[in-house]
Amino acid sequence: MSRRMLLALFVLGMAAALTQLALWWLTPPPPPSTFAGPPRSSYTLYDFHLTALGDDGRPALFLRAPQLDRRNGDDALYINAPRFVLPQNNGPAWQGHSRFGWVNAQGTELKLLGDVHMLQPAVDGGPPSTITSHDITAWPREHRLASAARTEIQQPNATLVGIGFRANTATRTLELLDDVHGTFLPTTHHAP
After folding, report:
1. Would you say residue 41 has pLDDT above 70?
2. 97-123 as b/e, with b when 16 or more CB fall inside 10 Å?
3. Which of 115, 119, 138 lies closest to 128 in space, CA to CA?
4. Is 80 exceeded by the pLDDT of residue 186?
């Protein structure tokens, strides 16, 4: 090889090395990883009781459960195995339980997740009522409930089954939305 060729290779090698060094110095460092693992709770409560007040200052929801987590970022409440009471202005409160629960940061929306069972004791000599459904959304301050899942409503002499429901517990109305079937047992009258 000639001296000229060696000099050209040396200059080319130095240019490549200087270019690489310039790239290392001028390229910004990679951003740090923002992944911090699963969401962390800002606090956790065990065996708690909660009373949520309505706009009028009266209780709109009583809630107790073995565990409640409040997550950073969305300020929502995540609840395991909630047991709840929805007080009514006219009549006994609805009582119930579900597998999981979620309450939004404002406290205006409650999601009862998994199988949900609700009971309202007898009202003014009328029969008690039970609702069995799945994934119910409740708006306690507005006295409203809704679900898109299969729902069964039972009273001692009647059973109604349908897909989806909405209810207003203040006006004591409940509407099954689709594919409704009912079974009504005859009432027996005793002679005096």
Report:
1. no
2. bbeebebeeebebbbbbeebebbbeee
3. 119
4. yes
Q: What is the pLDDT of residues 53-111, one digit of tens each?
A: 877 888 888 989 999 998 877 888 899 999 989 887 777 888 999 999 998 988 889 89
According to the model, what pLDDT value does residue 157 have?
87
Amino acid identity of residue 5, one-letter, is M
Query: Do residues 109 and 130 touch, judged by C-beta distance below 8 A?
Result: no
Pick from 139, 94, 100: which is nearest to 116 by CA? 100
| Residue 7: Cβ-neighbour burial (10 angstroms; 0-12, 13-18, 19+) | exposed
Superfamily name with CATH number, domain 41-143: Lipopolysaccharide (LPS) transport protein A like domain (2.60.450.10)
